[in-house]
Amino acid sequence: MSTDKTLIRGAKVLGGDQQDVLIENGTVAAVGTGLDPEGATVVEAAGQVLLPGLVDLHTHLREPGREDSETVLTGTRAAAVGGFTAVHAMANTFPVADTAGVVEQVWRLGKESGYCDVQPVGAVTVGLEGKQLAELGAMADSAAGVRVFSDDGKCVDDAVIMRRALEYVKAFDGVVAQHAQEPRLTEGAQMNEGPVSGELGLRGWPAVAEESIIARDVLLAAHVGSRVHICHLSTAGSVEIVRWAKSKGWNVTAEVTPHHLLLTDELVRSYDPVYKVNPPLRTEADVRALREALADGTIDCVATDHAPHPSEDKDCEWAVAAMGMVGLETALSVVQHTMVDTGLLDWAAVADRMSFRPALIGRLSGHGRPVSTGEPANLTLVDPDYRGAVDPAGFASRSRNTPYAGLELPGRVTATFLRGKATVLDGKLV
Amino acid sequence: MKRHLISAADLTRDDAILILDTAEEMARVADRPIKKLPTLRGRTVVNLFFEDSTRTRISFEAAAKRLSADVINFSAKGSSVSKGESLKDTALTLEAMGADAVVIRHHASGAPHRLANSGWIGGSVVNAGDGTHEHPTQALLDAFTMRRHLAGAADGGPVHHRGPGDGTGRDLEGRRVTIVGDVLHSRVARSNVHLLGTLGAHVTLVAPPTLLPIGIENWPCEVSYDLDAVLAKSDAVMMLRVQRERMNAAFFPTEREYSRRYGLDAARMAALPEHAIVMHPGPMNRGMEIAAEVADSVRSTIVEQVSNGVSVRMAVMYLLLGGAAPPAELPAAATARTEEKNS
Ligand SMILES: [Zn+2]
């Protein structure tokens, strides 16, 4: 455990000039050069980049109900390793997080873990069934203070339910995060619908199933004057719709996952279910459009959609395999690889897309703050010069379902601070 | 040849011709009084069927037995597999039993690929049909049948229904093959497009647009929505089975409309060139995609395809397991008889 006082020496703050950052009593006490190390644990950070603690809008922690794949404790440890200081825990647990009781339970487990703040997401509808609104107000008023509501894993496909949810959450400045997937167009869908699915004989998940819902929802949000957030946007067409909605001044935000910034449906030719994810991996053209949209701000943020699954749910034939990939521990490396090393984003913009904006969308206070005196010391230190192959055996997550095993990726989180307390130091969990 | 047969696309032209030529040798064995060869004696072939298909299973079983292999039939129905055992655990069991080859039929596309590439088993994997992906031995037996009819005459041309010929050494260069029906859900169509292209044939797929996959314009074949427009220039017409239930998912309005637009009846058959053959992988829906009088006509190779299936599957197992000996070195019938006595 760290002492109360830590001096991070010589880090490039948000990728800018080298500075010392002094942390005291959970807050940033000073930022400058030649700060006095007296009484402080010194973290030598020459050549490294200091970012505000990363914030994930989309994490599946699986507890309660699927503790065989992840728990709040193992998931928050994985988050800390990945440089996150706050994660939004998705509602599709067993039981579903559709009551104040369940969201408070998850919130409390997060407090107890101490590795990363856990902000529960509340279900929009009871049991994610899409039929009846869950008690959104009770979840908002609970100790968990829920502001993001989502039936993620399922789409709120009924237009009336979606309209009402969008309107209702205005009362407490909430947002509905939509998993955009028209259900009838994606029955039994196994992968992106395109030339590859046709060849492989796997049922297609067409881009239009995502785009048609996004188009409807931005129109609904505009009509009722609400804000809507689009989960894991995955197609070039979706980018165009969000860009158009933003040009109208509508209150629309969107996220993209690291895997959709890097991987394409060509990988499905292996029939290895490690590449099975929802929404599915798309095409090269989609990847290009997503990167450009994240760079120009059309897509607001990166969210991991960290989806742990036990090995038996992936060690099988494609059709019966579970959908999803773990992502917390590789997210920043993938973003560096796809966005920073390609010149599309600088580190200040990474701070924006992975901390400031997701915290703003989730209405988190205390996260996504600038690295300056008096701010909460939620910080992430990255060594951008590191190169290493991804080794799932070393994951802090309980699950190993990563598509990057053996892939050499740049960058490594060397330290993470949650309100001044180191959760990761020298690249290892504290 | 590769160690496994998963996709018809894995076969080079030389591989394909070697298999077809070997199958001709195997067919000659079938004409002998003793139909067995000792080639795979002591080798174990497992028929792992996750999907009911008696005709395909029997064909593989007959092929393996004629090569003297020990055959284990492992049907998912009523076994531990139907009780939720995973493909992986089943594979590990087969490996422990010393399977030299696993013939797998599975309702999930890619399951044979998974079995062959996951390191669960060491033997050869033969795809006997996976989901809506591929059925490479069906394509081989179709190509074998086409070659006998369309390139089986002494001059390399068609035999004009005067019995099947022998096209040994030849490919299907320039032959025009029309495949009609539910291409979207057809593993037979996918394998045939790959293999027939490799063998030099020109393939045209005919279907209502709803039953063609997205991206078909990238396939190495032509596509038509109009059956009548292509019949006159077809050397072979292959009718695919169309499940009646597809109309419930709005792939086509009614059986009658499907049959009228895409079924092969006597009038359409009359529009074919004189030498053309009519094929069907079975099982047929008589009256739906093919009229009974067409299925039973002199042009129909449907029954022949079944017997050719055994020869082709013998050739595949022989080449995968028995080594790559050229077919000329196959043991003589006399040897087979001796082995038969000893076994
Ligand atoms: Zn989702």
Molecular structure report:
The complex is a heterodimer of chains A (about 425) and B (about 350). Helices cover about 30% and strands about 20% of the residues of chain A. Chain A is built from eleven helices and 19 strands. In chain A, α2 links the parallel β7 and β8. Chain B is globular, with a radius of gyration of 20 Å. The C terminus of chain B is likely disordered. In chain B, α1 packs across α11, α2 packs across α11 and α5 packs across α6. Chain B is α/β, with parallel strands linked by helices and about 350 residues long. At the A-B interface, α5 of A face α4 of B. The complex binds zinc ion. Zinc ion binds next to loops of chain A.
Q: Mean of residue pLDDT of chain A?
A: 97
The profile of the biggest β sheet of chain A is: 9 strands, mixed
Strand ordering within the main sheet of chain B? 7-6-5-8-9
Terminal-residue CA separation of chain B: 30 Å
Number of domains of chain A: 2
Taking Cα atoms only, what radius of gyration of chain B do you get, to the nearest Å? Answer: 20 Å
Mean pLDDT of chain B: 90
Distance between the termini of chain A: 6 Å
SSE order of chain B: HEHEHEHEHEHEEHEHHEHHH
| Rg on CA atoms of chain A, Å | 20 Å
Elements of chain A, N to C (H/E): EEEEEEHEHEHEHEEHEHEHEHHEHHEEEE
Which ions and ligands are bound to the chains? zinc ion
Q: What is the CATH third-level topology name of the largest domain in chain A? A: TIM Barrel
Structural class of chain A: alpha/beta
**Alpha plus pi helix count of chain B:** 12
Topology:
The complex is a heterodimer of chains A (430) and B (343).
Chain A: E1 5-13, E2 18-24, E3 27-32, E4 41-44, E5 49-52, E6 54-59, H1 72-81, E7 84-89, H2 100-113, E8 117-120, H3 136-141, E9 148-149, H4 159-168, E10 175-178, E11 191-192, H5 195-200, E12 204-205, H6 207-224, E13 228-230, H7 236-247, E14 252-256, H8 258-262, H9 284-296, E15 301-302, H10 331-340, H11 347-361, E16 379-389, E17 408-418, E18 421-425, E19 428-429
Parallel strand pairs in A: 1-4, 1-5, 6-7, 7-8, 9-10, 10-13, 11-12, 13-14, 14-15
Antiparallel strand pairs in A: 1-2, 2-3, 5-16, 16-17, 17-18, 18-19
Helix pairs in contact in A: 1-2, 4-6, 6-7, 7-9
Chain B: H1 13-30, E1 44-49, H2 54-66, E2 70-75, H3 87-96, E3 101-106, H4 111-117, E4 124-130, H5 136-150, E5 176-180, H6 187-198, E6 202-206, E7 222-224, H7 227-231, E8 236-239, H8 255-262, H9 266-270, E9 277-279, H10 292-295, H11 302-321, H12 333-342
Helix pairs in contact in B: 1-5, 1-11, 2-11, 5-6, 5-11
The structure holds zinc ion (ZN).
